[in-house]
Amino acid sequence: MNQKSPLLFLAIALFYGIAFFSGNEGHAQVRPTRSDSLVVTPKDTAAVKKRGDIETTINYKAKDSIRYDAVSQIMYLYGDAHIDYGEVALDAAFIQINWKTSIIDAEGMKDSAGVLQNKPLFKNGAETYQAERMSYNYKTKKGRVIGAVTTQGEGFIHAETIKRDSAGSIYGRHARYTTCDLEHPHFYIKATKMKVIPNDRVIAGPFHLVFADVPTPIGLPFGFFPSPRKRGSGVIIPTFGESNQQGFYLREGGFYWAMNEYMDLRLTGDIYSLGGYGARVQSTYTKRYKFSGSFSLSHTFIKASENIGAGATTDNVYNYRSDSRDIWISWSHQPVTRPGQGQFSASVNAGSQFYNQRNSTSPQNALSPAFNSTVSYRKSSPNSPINYGVTISQSQTTRTQANAQGEQVPVQQMSFTLPDFSFGVASQSPIEWFGGTLTGRWIEGIRIGYNLNARQYVTNNISAGSGLGFPFSNRMGRDTVVAINGSNLSQIFRNARTSINHDIPITLGTVSLFKYFKLTPGVSYSESWFTKKFTYRNVPGSNLLAVDTLKGLQRTYQYQGGVSLATNLYGTAQIKGKKIEAIRHTLTPNLSYSFRPDFGNPEFGFYQRVQRDSLGNTQLLSRFQGLEGNVPGPGLSSALSFSVNNNVEMKVKTDSAGVFKKVSLIDAFNLAGSYNMAADSFKLSNISVNLSTKLFNNVGVTLSGSFDPYQYENGRPVDRYLIEGGGFRLARLMNLNFNTGFEFNQQARKQQAASGAAPPTNLPALQRTVTAADYVEFNIPWTLSVDLTSNFTRDALTDKLMNNATSAGINGSVTLTDKWAVNYTTSYDLKNKILSYTNIGIVRDLHCWQMSIDWVPFGVLQRYSININAKSALLQDLRLRRSSSASGRPY
């Protein structure tokens, strides 16, 4: 104690030590100064003071006590001590602040069992350190930490000693880097020296991996682990393996470039020991509040190989008897919907015929026979009735076609819409056209709209007219799929179909009749324009037809009118039971009449009657056959249509307080048909029936079918009602579709209903690589759902319902422990008695790692894969993998 300066001691004690006498909390804003010479000119209005070492207020507190040594200028904080200094925060059992040296020391405190408690926890912005002891110079912003654990992004660094320089870089000695958040991690990268640049990278070397405290025998001279606050660029480690047709390979290796915060670029490639290779360019992009998307371009070359392994498939798709070059383009662009703004969207999936079968690791893509692409732009305004849009679409599918040798070979059929333009004007009342005010009068229900659609359809499937029922003289062969190349483009575009369709919907409002009925009249007019039409003539002495094409603007049109009458009928049965209060039946009948002229009449010129065979039989043939557009159908229509919709609900008491809820007994039971009074025969149409309900409120059942009211002779219908043949048989069931499904676990049913998710299905989504880990739900002990689908069609000759297809599916999971889960999905074809696509998955949660096993035991896509990988995206390339497929050996 300084005995020579009692007044100075008293002043300092009052300034720094007041917290000791007033609850052990306080703050100090200390600005040490020293004598500096300062030259002041006459023009200066004030002296300039030099800033001190402490930049902001230091707030401190302690649970036990705070003691200040005024002579040494050291403050001691005991028990749950805490300090705040700008972005710096420190918690520890004991903290010491030396105001002379500007150093803060902190350490934990051992309990009665000798375990160190309340270890120092140091936070500097987003950085966090925990250690046995630490020192920090708040003036130079340098520090030294003993026995430290610090967090860097998703990673944790354990080190014997850590030093921090003024630039923020961290240096560790005898350090361990891991993404496991345990104090004793399951795995780590052990290095003698390690440097960390916060929010940027971790550099270590030399280092080796340690799993479960067992070091791997192979080390590396240095390691580089990016840990940026934002995305960072870096090398992508390839996958090692071996394929039966391609040999040993390195796959999916390359470079990731984070171009900026809105866009990235991924360049990867494959190389095979038998001479093949692959290359990919992938990118994702986003612009906040406007759009987001992704793009991918892939090219592969597989060298021909005659050395096909034993047991491999003989399908030419998978056996490469000749060099194979394949390409695939994927593009997805999603706009953010904004009122009054145009929306550009894209969904493109296109490429070579067998790209997915030969290169895809996704069973969904490999099994899919067809892919579709669409690019569109649409614009509408909430303040205008006008909207328009432009769409370009493409579809491709694989089918078989006979070659010159008569063998069935796969070909790729492609079609394009170049373009599809639409323009529309929303329905408006004519009163609005002249500036009138809508007041709710019935005449205001008269509204008129307009829609225009112009499209050009192009396909490489050249039609031979075989679908018309007779051959043409200039197209004797079958429909042919030609290759899309320069020499065939003129032929493909000659067969293009161009049309412009106009539609004018007119609503005449709804009129109430007798209080309970709604009468709705309506008329419509539509017109189609074409660039050509056909004229047919018989070839003398044969059954062939010659076709003459008349080019130029051609048009068809059609109009019709009608009226509908609808009402609702309710019936309630009061039960007054212990649980059931009442049952209500809602019946919605609808009766409508429509009239349309016979547009097959020669005066319209839309159809031509041609000779069908040498016996003199004739038929009407459209002069726009096979073209795009709306061609009106032949025949006079004066039809009376009817439908009856039914719904049955039950009111059930849920508790003793008299709270009720509605339970649907029949969601829908609908019948519909029509009677054409102008037809010369078969005036009554088939009767369609649809039923949907839930048995026991859990088992969903849907039924749909159609009934034919006419008799049949020798497999052909005759114009006599079935009831005329005797008995009380009104109609014959012609087809029936049935589907049902049930989830046995009530907890899973409730969670599914709460989330609004669709029930499980045996057909995973397209463009989605599904693994066992995707289905894991550890908080549900088990799930088991079953579904049954069946459809039947009546054979006209035998008059028996024939089963076209019946399949049963099972989908579920079992959580063996809180770490082990098994999921499964399969379906069985009951008609052909074979198993369809089956998948079994096993998942093991390894805390900071995850193991998954996927197994497809049957079929062409039979395979298995075992994958063990770190959960953290930071170490996603740190993995162990083994897989095998039907077309390749295990690796």
TrEMBL record:
Organismal lineage: Bacteria, Pseudomonadati, Bacteroidota, Cytophagia, Cytophagales
Name this polypeptide is given: LPS-assembly protein LptD
Residues passing through the membrane, by range: none
UniProt GO cellular component terms: cell outer membrane; transporter complex
Domain LPS-assembly protein LptD central intervals: 202-710
InterPro entries xref list: LptD (IPR050218), LptD_2 (IPR045659)
Domain of life: Bacteria
